[in-house]
Amino acid sequence: MKLRSAIIVLGLAAVVPLRVLGCAACFGRSDSALAAGMNYGIFSLLVVITTMLGLIATFFVYIVRRAGQMPDAQLPEPTAVPES
Q1: Which of 2, 5, 11, 37 is the most exposed place for a label (fewest CB within 10 A)?
Q2: What is the DSSP-derived secondary structure letter of residue 75?
C-alpha cells in the first residue's frame, strides 16, 4: 500500500509544472511582491523573537536584583538530636 501511494505521489510530482515548485525568491525574482512580503514576514518574526527574549532577560535581571536586596535569611541554630 505504501509503495503504491509513493508511486502515485511521484507520478503527480512529475506532472506538476515547474512554476509551482518554487516561489519568486527561489527563482531569483527578488523584486516581486511575494519576495517583499516574505522579507516583511521574516523581519516581523525577528522583531517578535528579539522582543520576547529581551523581556525574559529583563525579568531575570529584575529577579536577581530583588534577591540581592533581600536580607539574608536567619537560620535557627541546629539542635542536637537525642540518641535513642
Answers
A1: 2
A2: P
C-alpha 21/C-alpha 23 separation (Å) is 7
Do residues 23 and 34 lie in contact, with contact meaning Cβ atoms separated by under 8 Å?
yes
pLDDT tens track for 22-52: 665 566 667 778 778 888 999 999 999 999 9
The 10 Å Cβ neighbour count of residue 27 is 13
Q: Mind listing the pLDDT tens digit for each residue in 73-83?
A: 676 777 777 77
Q: Which three cell numbers stand for residue 35?
A: 519576495
Cell representation of residue 80: 542536637
- Between CA 8 and CA 47 the distance in angstroms is 42
pTM for this entry: 0.51
Cα gap 2→71, rounded to integer Å: 67
